[in-house]
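#structure-requests
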Amino acid sequence: MKRMIKRVAAAALSFCLLAISVTASSAQQVEQALSALSVRIASEHITGDLFETYETGQQEEIAVDAASLSVKAKSAILMEASTGKVLYELNPDDSVAPASITKIMSLLLIVEALEEEKISLDDVVTASETASSMGGSQIWLKVGETMTVHELLKAVTVASANDACVALAEHIAGSVEEFVARMNQRAKDLGAKNTVFHNCTGLDADGHMTTARDVAVMSAELIKHDLIREYTQIWIDYLRNGETQLVNTNKLVRFYEGTTGLKTGTTSKAGYCLSATAERDGMQLVAVVMGGESGSERFNGAKRMLNYGFANWCLQTPQADLSQILPVQVLKGRENSVCVSVPQLQPVLLKKGKAEQLTCHISLSETVEAPVAKGQKLGTLTVKNADKTIATYDLCAAQEVKRMSFFLMLKRLLQRLAG
């Protein structure tokens, strides 16, 4: 309650200072001050989030199993990003409105376009009438106003600005419609089969739907890109030479250890939504809350899931005894043996305390008859956790070995007979 009173008082003080400035400032300065204050309110989705309480530092019991987790939402999911393993789920495949969670896919297309050098962070984008007409969260772009891709990307990731998102969509695809078509195709490519986008912002629209599972998949893909973390981990920043303040709508960025992103969303249809990503000890978790009961509960629900994941699970890289993997003898080959290519073993997700049960078992042929193709399977490496197989890798020929010709075979035979 005290936190709420403080925030209401701060907002009231801002309005008072603005009113005082009318008598001492030019009309342009007043307009700039209004814009800055509007952006602050817009960054909270204009739904009362500005006055919500989010208590930090509370001591709470961490769930020891998924069944004891409590998330007050329509649907939720906790996923380990690198393996895709689901650690907790609540109605994960129910169709729900995504609000600004939509921008996870928009951001993925933007980052991919940057990495493919189709656009540059230094590109200058001119705001269209369509971009400037967006409602909800925005930075109040005016028709004809210019900003760089870097500035617009910052506005989208930090303040969830709809106008900035549309401006980037048009810059990349030529039109919002084409950009949305690419969003839907990319969702299909990722296996997000229950997602349909009708816009790039997340404003409520009939048929604009997704699921908690699909959001987790899209989030895990987005967070692979180091570039996006440079933006999603910003707490406060500025545009227009310091005249426009951006405050991150994801409060976990400031208050939760290891947070790497990612995106909030709030509309009357969707309720309070959040996809939160965090990394500790090399393990990246994605916690998705869709249709949360309140702004605070979406953060608290995500925090409970993340706490459970970090407290009970870990990533462990299997360690194989490579001395057991010797060259394989080749029969009737131009070379007598072939080296074995050993794949890089990927980390596996384990319950904490179970790492000592992780073992590697190698099965390799003693001989192989020529010809041997490069990449030909010669054996397997099996990773087990206790008696359960959790991964299998092929052990393959590192190079080609051709079959010995008749004359070469005869020559070698004569050499042996000659001693």
